[in-house]
Amino acid sequence: METDVLAKEALLVLGAWRTALAASRPRLIWSYAIGPEGITGALPLTSAAYELRGSVDAVLHNGHLEEGVPGGHNPGMMTLPAERVDLTRPGSLGELYAAGVRSVLVDGSAPLAAHLLADGLLDEVVIYHQDSGPSAAFREGGALMLPPGFRLVEVGRAGRWVRMRGQRIFS
Asked: Rg for the chain (alpha carbons), in Å?
């Protein structure tokens, strides 16, 4: 018998689920856009950000939690709270996990992300930077850098945006 056949490929599909299972909390992904007005939610600005919705169980935007793909779960597989969700409240992630949520996309909300970063709860960041043209350069520092403890794993174009994805470095 051969073991570990396609192990890396399996992790691509099951990685988020395994992360949630090991931590007993949903995997958290923070997406945001950087434009002239600073950091904002990415979902309202770029259709490319909507692809992220298909890869998560739930999306948190302005305190409201909704299914990543509406109707994408069988009845009884996942139950989302009807009231506003406060991920800074102790126990809230455990409650979501118990309700069947294995991954959450947090769109925008820099203050919430700062809290989640400080507590070591963010697993991935997806940054959409407005493209200023072929001769423009990214500024150094501030919001354009990945948060400490993350490594850049992907850079690509998404329409008029440059998409950067970073994953948390586990020690």
From this structure: 17
Cβ count within 10 A of residue 130: 15
SS (H, E, C) the chain: CCCCCCHHHHHHHHHHHHHHHHHCCCEEEEEEEEECCEEECCCCCCHHHHHHHCCCCEEEECCEEEECCCCCCCCCCCCCCCCCCCCCCCCHHHHHHHCCCCEEEEECCHHHHHHHHHCCCCCEEEEEEECCCCCCCCCCCHHHCCCCCEEEEEEEEECCEEEEEEEECCC
Q: Is the pTM of this model over 0.85?
A: no
Tokens of 45: 């600005």
- How far apart CA 15 and CA 33 sit, in angstroms, is 25
**pLDDT in single tens digits along all 171 residues of the chain:** 777 777 666 666 677 778 888 889 999 999 988 877 777 777 666 676 678 888 899 999 888 999 998 888 898 899 999 899 999 999 999 999 999 999 999 988 888 989 999 999 999 999 888 776 665 555 544 445 688 899 999 999 888 888 899 999 876
